[in-house]
Amino acid sequence: MCAAILTLEAIPxxxxxxxxxxxEGTSTGVALGLGLGLALxxxxxxxxxxxxxxxxxxxxxxxxxxxxxxxxxxxxxxxxVFALLWGTADYLGRRIERxxxxxxAAYDRLSAQQPPE
Length: 117
Prior knowledge:
The chain contains four helices and no strands. It has about 120 residues and is mostly helical. It has one domain (about 1-85).
């Protein structure tokens, strides 16, 4: 779920580059660097979620997306929405992993108690 959130977040973050130049008066280089750069980071971090530190990097992306609101004020709202989605996906994913581990442990205990047929 977290990878899907980051992948979907790359779209509005990347599109924020198009808003930065004409609306906010940001230079082209800065707009492309911030918007498309953060969109690329979203996609890269989505691929790094197999490593435990990838989730910390995902939280850093959420902070950066909210901070993008200092350039494009709408990103305060969008960044907060995606941070909420990210937090929910992170929480539920960890909960599912704990429950799955408990179920496998219970199954292993039960299997060890039964004599082989």
